[in-house]
Amino acid sequence: MADRDGGSGRRAKPKPRRVPAEADAGPIRAAIDFATLPLDQLPSGLPPEVFTAPGILALADTLPVMIAFVAPDLSLGFVNQPLADWFEIPRRDLLGMKIVDIIGEDALAKREPMYRRALSGERLFFASQFDHPTRGSTAVQSHFIPWADADGTVRGFFILQQDVSEQRTAERALRESEERFRRIANSAPALMWVTRLDRSRDFVNDAYAMFACGPGCDFEEARTLDWRSRIHPDDVDRIVAESIAGEASLQRFTLEGRYLRHDGEYRWLRTVSQPRFGPDGELVGFIGVGSDITLAKEAELELRRQVDEQTRQLAASEAQFRAVFEAALEVMVLLKPDGTVLAVNNRREAWRHEHPSEAIGHKLWDAPTMRSYPQHAAVMKKAIASAARGKVFTTEVKMEREGIRTAYLDVSVQPVRGADGAIIYLLFEARDITELKAAQEQLRQSQKMEALGQLTGGIAHDFNNLLTVVVGGLDIIAKRADDPKLKRYADNALAAAERGARLTGQLLAFSRVQRLEVRPTHVAPLIHNMRPLLRNVLGPGISKQFDLDEALMPVMADPTQLEVAVLNLAINARDAMPDGGTLVFSTRKVRIKGDSDLEDGDYIELTISDTGVGMPPEVAERAFEPFFTTKEVGKGTGLGLSMVYGMARQSGGGARIESAPGKGTTVKLLFRKADDAVIEAAAGIEEPVGHVVPLAPLSVLVIDDDPDVRGFIVNSLDEQGYRVRAASDGREGLAAIERETPDLVVLDFIMPGLSGAEVARKIRAKRPDQPILFVSGYSETEAVKRTAPDAPLLAKPFRAEALHKAVRAALTPAG
């Protein structure tokens, strides 16, 4: 390969590094003289003390490489501390020593030609072995950099050196390990291979190559073989599908199929594959082992063939027995192909005729049960005709008639064939799915509410980002406005924006994203303490009744949010009773078991019932949805009941509503029993007392993906005298911290890419004491505690004053 100068392979001689004319006293003197230059000629932003001799020495000592300056007489004019430590000689003793006195005559003889080349102005980079006096044989990587003065005279050269012995040892160990693996794999009688993600193979063993292309196989041919061309045509679709599914599962998976061997014979192979992961846990491919199971598989197939033959012989005699098997959970009827009933089981159902056997001899649609449901006769005739043609017929029917509970049935009619394949019977099955339908409807409603919760949580988070900018901007306008009218407008707009913030808080409570301060709470005393407030809210036209168990167990709830929920329900009840009525508050202990929405266990049921106008079913079904309301425009946000629902669910319980037009409304709130009675104080941002933080010299790094919120925070802190930098995402913020460590990091908790939690973990891994202030549109108190227990959280939206207080608190040492 040609060198950079395009010559015949000789290394190009680089131009030596030039030094200022004042450097006559040597490298150290040059650094001292350079520090006397005017400050306006130094690099912008760098302190002058860096360019002094102590500054350069301190910088050299912190570098992870060994540095020395060698004079033309091969004496050391400068060494940094890592080099002195490596030689285990004090730096003051090394300075001025000849290299030969340090490394010995033999080592000098080997290296002196390279020293002379460096002194002639040639820059060198090489690796070599060095016999260290105490470390023994070491691998050293060296870089020689000539140093010349203004007229080009080489005054010496710098040595930059690294000990790479451990790296070399690790590389040799890895090569030895790979060789052992190859020997072990090639000695195994099973096929072995290692693939990449694109399914190309990095390795195959001898057994694999032998199966693929026989003796003397070209390993490259075996490694690149497309196995899909070797799979038996009857197995290829199945094996390819199972292979794709197995790889997607990221779990160990097994395949069985016929593969074409090199000699043209199909052999049954059982292969076991499993994913392999890189050092960082990423999927990098798969490893597999295959065994020839032809003999066992052929024996299995022969046995299965014999069993199938015997089963076909018995099928005709057993068909009627299976049809009337009394242990069946479904109603079963054996029919002729024309629909005539031959036999029935005695499964009892409310919708079925009390004497099922009376149907025998009748057409199915003329049987006693079907005569009670004539609306299904046409469906039964269609089902019989379809099954008689060899097709399985399935449908769902609603069994509805006066005086009998409505039931839903999953009905199927399928043909039963004889040994010759002809249809000899039809089998009618009816399974009662009434409870399943109810459960499915309950699940559908639960999924609907969950989806609404996720949607509203996301909307509320985005609105909190918007409101942070709006509230912050209006707050600044209100404080700086000299015009009274403008200040009044700003104050009104600020109040409206903060009402919007309260609405987003209700949305977050519904979505179960807003973290409640849940703790053991007694419901009855809480309701009693609210009685004066309820009296004022409800007015004299509504009487109140309280049936509260005073000795009830403590439950898990947020007392403040529970009070807000009760107040919301009371206001809704008042609006539903414009002409007066009765509002009843009651509590009772209940045990929940087998509920799809709630965990099994003990609960307190708080019931609030009114005698108002009630709701039709379609309104009651949507009552907990956010923004759904039947009130006039301006009289309701549609968030009251959704907040109640979210509060109950987030507390680990549930909410149910029962209502009918003219019969009032009952709302039941279920709260689970508290595991213990320890009340933990909620964590909050409190500014320590007695500590004063000087603002001017402190630096703050703001990491937030929302440009408007980021701009508001930066401007607010800049006005307070902080030195503020900003980053638009986690990776940019981490890079900024590497460049300069801030006194405080203001970090958005929810960001795309690297989340705030991930950024905080990376920061604390390197700087455990780094102050961090989280800001978020959610209130992830528990998540923040898990990520950084000492880091406070400032919830969006917030005013500039709240931001300043939180920043001061985060910067002030505790104690």
Give start-end ranges of low-pLDDT stretches: 1-35, 510-514, 632-638, 677-696
User: Which of globular, elongated, flat, extended, rod-shaped describes the shape?
Assistant: flat
Beta-strand share of residues: 15-25%
Distance between the termini: 67 Å
Number of helices: 25
Report mean pLDDT, rounded to a whole number.
79
Got a strand count? 28
Name the structural class. Answer: alpha+beta
Major β-sheet annotation? 6 strands, mixed
Cα Rg: 41 Å
Percentage of helical residues? 25-40%
List keywords for this structure.
815 residues, alpha+beta, six-stranded mixed sheet, five-stranded antiparallel sheet, 25 helices, 28 strands, flat, disordered N terminus
Show the helix and strand layout:
Layout: E1 17-18, H1 27-34, H2 53-62, E2 66-70, E3 76-79, H3 81-87, H4 91-94, H5 99-103, H6 105-119, E4 124-132, E5 136-148, E6 154-163, H7 165-187, E7 191-196, E8 201-204, H8 206-213, H9 219-223, H10 236-249, E9 253-260, E10 266-277, E11 283-292, H11 294-323, E12 331-335, E13 341-344, H12 368-371, H13 377-388, E14 393-401, E15 404-417, E16 423-432, H14 434-480, H15 484-511, E17 519-521, H16 523-529, H17 531-538, E18 542-547, E19 555-557, H18 559-576, E20 581-592, E21 601-610, H19 617-621, H20 640-650, E22 654-659, E23 665-672, E24 699-703, H21 707-719, E25 723-727, H22 730-739, E26 744-748, H23 756-766, E27 772-776, H24 781-787, E28 793-795, H25 800-811
Parallel strand pairs: 1-5, 18-20, 24-25, 24-26, 26-27, 27-28
Antiparallel strand pairs: 2-3, 2-6, 4-5, 5-6, 7-8, 7-11, 9-10, 10-11, 12-13, 12-16, 14-15, 15-16, 17-19, 20-21, 21-23, 22-23
